[in-house]
Design brief:
Elements (H helix, E strand, L loop, with lengths): L6 E2 L2 H8 L3 H11 L5 E4 H11 L3 H8 L4 E3 L3 H17 L9 H14 L2 E4 L11 E4 L2
Parallel strand pairs: 1-2, 2-3, 4-5
Amino acid sequence: MTLEPPRILDASALVQLFHGHPDLMKILKDSDLGQFSVAAPAGAVLEAQVVLKATTSMWDHFLAHRVFELPLSGHASVEAGDLARSRLENHPMHRVLTGPPMVGQVLREAFAMNGAIVTAIPENYGGHNVVLAILD
């Protein structure tokens, strides 16, 4: 039985997990003992992968059994976007709509689906062999 609230790992925690941070190793151990569950939102996995450049099998080591990946559905995406808005408006770190993780996911889906990317910012996809449908 889970006694404590689950631990939700953000991208920085996932990077540290891959580096064997002692606090995260303890979190995994406590989770294995059933004290709480550990989860990673898909967006955090995506952001962490930008830094880690880990293989799929490396991710499987954590995501297959010990850390539950939380998918990002359409409605969850809308909610997450609403939550992120104030951060982008009040503390801009990237030009809005040009975040590397977003670009990476769009490119991945375009390659997987053999699709065209519809965009108003074609510069995001420079250097990649993809079809662009550019919005004026």
